[in-house]
Write a structure and sequence with these properties.
There is one protein chain. By secondary structure, the protein is mainly α. The chain has one domain. It has 4 helices and no strands. The longest helix is centred in the N-terminal third of the chain and has 24 residues. The model has no long low-confidence stretch (mean pLDDT 81).
Length: 84
């Protein structure tokens, strides 16, 4: 593959990784930390009878299953196979 293409691809991956990290820092760590916005949603006039439901669970995976699932994630799709 052309060296310039490889450099661009690597820069793109680095930019995506940086944005992903930024988004992760800005997001609540757990579902119970997400603020309740029902009043705001109802006052917008676009929705009525807003209800809040939170279903939290923990699911464990084998290492092989986790790797299999991560291979479908978009940030992993653009990585070189060697780095995956």
């Amino acid at each position: 593959m052309d060296e310039e293409i490889l450099r661009r691809r690597e820069r793109t991956f680095d930019n995506i990784a940086e944005l992903y990290g930024q988004a992760r820092r800005e997001c609540p760590a757990a579902a119970e930390e997400v603020p309740d916005a029902r009043d705001e949603i109802e006052h917008s006039g676009y929705c009525e009878d807003v209800r809040l439901a939170r279903d939290m669970w923990i699911q464990e995976f084998t290492a092989d299953r986790y790797v299999e699932m991560m291979s479908t994630a978009s940030d992993h799709q653009i990585m070189d196979l060697v780095k995956r």
